[in-house]
Design a protein that fits this description.
Blueprint lengths: L6 H5 L2 H24 L8 H12 L1 H12 L4 H25 L2
Helix pairs in contact: 2-3, 2-4, 2-5, 4-5
Length: 101
């Protein structure tokens, strides 16, 4: 039996909003580094790059858990949240890709 849960309640789950928050922080880290130091290329990636990589990589198990838990129960609502998560991740990846960082 499917569990009925409104989209607002699904969005309040930590497994729903945490990846979006992590992507937002990753984007903020990249943008603040660009504003402070500009586009710099060094041999070592540095702490900012490692922090960005950690924030983006640690989202994978959280999103996987969300998919396993909520896609079978509330597919339409879960897909809406997944679209938001993907959009946030792509927004965080865009400056890195476009600037070749």
């Amino acid at each position: 039996m499917r569990e009925a849960m409104p989209t607002g309640q699904i969005a309040r789950l930590p497994s729903a909003w945490l990846p979006i928050a992590m992507s937002s922080v990753a984007l903020a880290v990249v943008l603040s580094c660009l504003l402070l130091f500009g586009v710099t290329r060094t041999g070592d990636e540095g702490a900012v790059a490692h922090l960005w990589q950690l924030l983006m990589t640690l989202q994978v198990p959280i999103v996987a858990y969300f998919c396993i838990r909520w896609l079978p129960r509330a597919p339409k609502r879960a897909l809406g949240v997944l679209v938001l998560q993907l959009t946030a991740a792509l927004a965080a990846m865009a400056p890195v890709y476009l600037l070749g960082l």
